[in-house]
Amino acid sequence: VACNSVKPTGGKYKESENSTDYTEDMIINKKKLERKAHTLPYMKFRTQINSFMREILLDWLVSVHDRYDLSPSTLHLAVYIADKYCACIDVKGNDYQLVVLAAFHVASKYEDKYSAITVEQCVTLAAGSYNKSDILRMESMILFTIGFRISVPTVWTFLGLIVPHINISCHSAHFAFYLSECVMIQHDFLQHRPSILASACIAQAANLLDGSTLNVYDFPGYTMDDLEHHMAAMESITSFLQQKNSALNSVGIKYGKPKSWDSVCKLV
């Protein structure tokens, strides 16, 4: 039975662009856009920040996002904005959390217009490290640096488009959402485009929980040309799950809440 909604039982998970008859065309268009927007791994070119610092900060961001009950599109967009800026600028270590906070504020205003996190809340989250002026100044720097391009497809964009149109259980769909946030935190996964990561998360979840073998040709808008990249992402996710470090587990805690993610909580 297909999972016809991308909403879990709790949280402000708004409907994605999944209710039209043009899903395949939309996915094809989003795939074209992602090629221009895609951020490749960049940490080896940075002198004051590294992938472990990124992992710690994004793990913290997941817990903050969960606390304020914002849409998943906000979380994915915030990570994209922060990565895009850090790929352009050699960020100082002391400014890294400021970048993530400012990116989160921008993303929440764009995706959660009526319940966006406020600058004052960002200041509180910074625990005295930054003030209101710091956050607003960093927002301006980020937006100017990335050319104000924040209307971009993320992994969540493709999950929301694909899930309602394939034969996958809600149980597996929710596990795919969990996987998408796990891999989002890992810097190495930036090598994979969002559309490929989304297809790999869905296929991995379906394989593990439904016992079905899904591949790119099962998804609207995907072609056999995507297969090699899809399989590489699948292998990366498999390796990640086998070696997963439980020291940073905000995603597991979030998806382990029975009232919100009853179909996933027993697995994580």
Automatic annotation (TrEMBL):
CDD domains: CYCLIN_CCNO-like_rpt2. GO terms for biological process: cell division; mitotic cell cycle phase transition. Gene3D superfamilies: Cyclin-like. GO terms for molecular function: cyclin-dependent protein serine/threonine kinase regulator activity. It comes from the Eukaryota. InterPro entries: Cyclin, Cyclin-like_dom, Cyclin-like_sf, Cyclin_A/B-like, Cyclin_C-dom, Cyclin_N. Residues 59-144, 157-236 form the Cyclin-like domain. Keywords: Cell cycle, Cell division, Cyclin. SMART domains: CYCLIN, Cyclin_C. The keyword Cell division applies. Residues 153-264 form the Cyclin C-terminal domain. Pfam families: Cyclin_C, Cyclin_N. Belongs to the cyclin family. This is Cyclin N-terminal domain-containing protein. It comes from Fibrocapsa japonica.
